[in-house]
C-alpha cells in the first residue's frame, strides 16, 4: 500500500492499476479522463462536481441524496422511444429489436458513405473512428454469438477489435494500426449480422432461457454460465449505443467536411 502526500502526479497514466480501497483527500482530479474503469461502491463527500460528462452503465447513483438512475433512464427513453425495444423479453421482441437495428444502421451507413473515406478513420475526441466502431461490433458479435452461444473457441477475424482496456494475453486480435476500407469491414460485419439474424429468427422461449458456457480457450467472454437472453441482450446494447456514438461523431465529421 503506497501513500502519496503533497505530490504532483498530474498527467500520469494508470493502466490496469488497482486503486480499490484508496482514499483521496484534498486531491485534484480536474481534467481527468477515465475509460473502461470500475467505479463500484464509490463515496464522494464535500466534492465540487461540475462540467462532468459520464457515459456507461449507471445504477444506484445518488447525488445529494437523490437517486438519479431512474430519472436518467426515463429521460433517455423520452429522447429515444425505441430504446425500450432494446430490452426484449421474448423471441418476438428480439426479432423486432434486431430488425430495427439493421434499419437504423442502414441509415447510418448511408450517412457515412457521403463523407470522404479518409474521415471514416478519423477519431473524434479520442473515441473510436467509424471504421473502428464497426470492427468492435464484429468483435462483440463474435464474442457473444459465435463463441458464447455457438461454442466456437476461435471465432476471431484479424479485423476484430476488442475494447481498449482488454488484456493482451487472451489470444484475440487487437490491431489498431490497420486501415481497412469501409467495404472490407462491411463484408465481415454483414457475415456476422447474418449469423445473429439466424439465431434470432430461430429463437424459442426455451432457447432464450437456455444456459451456455463460452469455451475457456476463446479468451472472451469468461467461461461461466450465461443465458442466451443475456448474450443477445449484450449484443443489442452494443449495437444501439455504438450507433448512437457513431451518429454523434458523424455529425462532427460532417461539419469538418467541405
Describe the protein's architecture and organization:
The protein is mainly alpha-helical and 258 residues long. It has a domain at 88-256: Four Helix Bundle (Hemerythrin (Met), subunit A), CATH 1.20.120. It is built from six helices and four strands. It has helices spanning 69-79, 91-113, 130-147, 182-201, 205-209, 228-256, and strands at 62-63, 66-67, 211-212, 226-227. Strand 1 (62-63) and strand 2 form a beta hairpin. The longest helix is centred in the last third of the chain and has 29 residues, at 228-256. The protein is globular, with a radius of gyration of 20 Å. The mean pLDDT is 92.
Overall pLDDT confidence: 92
Topology as a string of helices (H) and strands (E) = EEHHHHHEEH
Strand numbers in spatial order across the main sheet: 1-2
Major β-sheet annotation: 2 strands, antiparallel
CATH architecture of the domain at 88-256: Up-down Bundle
Unreliable stretches covering 5 or more consecutive residues = none
CATH fold name of the domain at 88-256: Four Helix Bundle (Hemerythrin (Met), subunit A)
The CATH superfamily title of the domain at 88-256? dinb family like domain
Q: Give the strand content.
A: under 5%
Give the helix/strand class: mainly alpha
Oligomer: single chain
Radius of gyration: 20 Å
Alpha plus pi helix count: 6
Alpha-carbon distance between the termini? Answer: 54 Å
